[in-house]
Amino acid sequence: MFENIATIYLKEFRQLKRDKLSLSAIILVPTLMLLLYGYALNFDVKHVRLGILDESMTKESRELQQKFFSTEYFDFAGTVPDEGAIDKFIQDGKAKAVLVIPRDYAREILLGRKVDVQVLLDGANSNTATIVMGYVEGILQNYSANLTARYLDERGIHISSAGIDYRPRVYYNPELKSAKFLVPGLIGFILMILSIVTPAISVVREKERGTLEHISMAPTTSLEIILGKTTLYFVLSLAAAVLVISASFVLFDVTIRGSILLLAVTIVIFLIGTLGIGILISTFTNSQQMAFLVASLLSILPTFILSGFVFPINSMALPLQLVTYFLPGRYFLSALRAIMLKGSGFGDIYTQIYPLLIFAVVVPAFASIRLSRKGF
Question: Which whole-number Å values give the CA distances from 113 to 99, 125, 138, 158, 273, in the listed order?
Answer without folding.
Answer: 20, 35, 20, 18, 66
